[in-house]
Amino acid sequence: MDAVVEFLHRLPSEIRRVGGSVPWRLALLALTLAANIGFYLPSLPEGTPGLGVPGQDKAVHLLVFAATVFAAGRVLAPRKRFPIGWVVIAALVHALLIELVQLVALAERSGDLLDLLFDVVGIALGVAAWAGERMLRRDSAAE
Length: 143
Fold this sequence. Notes:
Blueprint: H1 2-17, H2 22-36, H3 56-76, H4 82-104, H5 113-142
Helix pairs in contact: 2-3, 3-4, 3-5, 4-5
């Protein structure tokens, strides 16, 4: 437990050391986490824009997971690689949980393996974006 407290205590200085803004990174993470709440809603209200667009549901899964993993990686793993593994594990568990909740507890929704696949692809894209940003920052710092 002390290791976790120490890790969280040093995160703001690590974020600043890589040239990041702590408030902006936390705000982006909060926004993406709030977007995840939509996966647990019984259904979208009638008249929601884009509701009838084919593939819109899959695009939402992909984009929300990519943005969430990217944002969490920027906050929890600004310098070291290890914490991104925990972010990926948490995102995978969350993806499974979404589909189970939709299958079992939400009568108007249904669990979908294709949604799970798009979640996993989104997780991979989020990790790739996180890694790409780290490489760009490292290259610009070296110059």
